[in-house]
Amino acid sequence: MSLLEVKDLSIHFGGVKAVQNVSFSIDSGIVYSVIGPNGAGKTTLFNLITGVYTPTSGEIRLDGEIIQGKSPDELARRGMARTFQNLQICMNMSAIENVMVGAHLRLDRNLFKAILRLPALKRRDEALREEAAGLMEFVGLGKYVGARPDAMSYGALKRLEIARALAMKPRLIFLDEPAAGLNPKETQEVDHLVRKVADSGITVVLVEHDMKMVMNLSDRILVLDYGRKLAEGTGQEVRGNPDVIAAYLGTHA
Ligand SMILES: Nc1ncnc2c1ncn2[C@@H]1O[C@H](COP(=O)(O)OP(=O)(O)OP(=O)(O)O)[C@@H](O)[C@H]1O
Q1: Burial code of 163-188, b = ≥16 C-beta within 10 A, e = fewer?
Q2: Which residue among 169, 199, 229 closes a domain?
């Protein structure tokens, strides 16, 4: 059984069919990329799978169990974490506290109950701080453990977001354009980090425009165009597909 199965998934926003009858499945342990021209439906697909949107029709299964309609929090607790196309870093908190938010999201089913147990919470916070520092080290931000986000480069903040998602201890991580806006050196650092995340056993789902990175990292690639599945396969299969070439060169109607 695949880790994630998507069947005939559609969502319509008024007249806009952002995702239309898309089906695919993702096996555990792979890097699976979703590519396509601007407006193809990639982020919408992420939003559907991670519970931000409820589909108009279709089915999403995690470990065989239907998950569409469940909240993002519930899905996070079931092992799905994500990063966003636009940075979602809280500038009022230190870098490490941003990472700790990920762990809190994992643990706090009942925040009120947690507040009543303040001493235990404090001990837990110390443990989480240590765990978060380890994750910052893992993403190459060890020297920023005591820093504030406004002292960090954009590239470092993109990796901080990945550390926060990892603090949720996911089985499946969704990365929405982790290399967008990065220079070539920063892009390479993210490329290495995604490989490291995948090697640690976490299944990676990637939306990315940087084709070198996509081809380098992906075990399988889904190509969307106008909300529809245009092709799916290995990098080599997808690259040689005439429909994909036409979509990217804009030669189709
Ligand atoms: N909440 C919404 N309401 C109305 N239309 C939407 C909404 N979200 C997305 N769309 C539309 O759905 C289509 C797909 O958008 P989406 O952002 O998923 O594309 P994308 O492939 O992620 O694009 P990009 O590469 O530019 O990020 C677009 O036509 C977009 O305008």
Answers
A1: bbbbbbbbbbbbbbbbbbebeeebbe
A2: 169
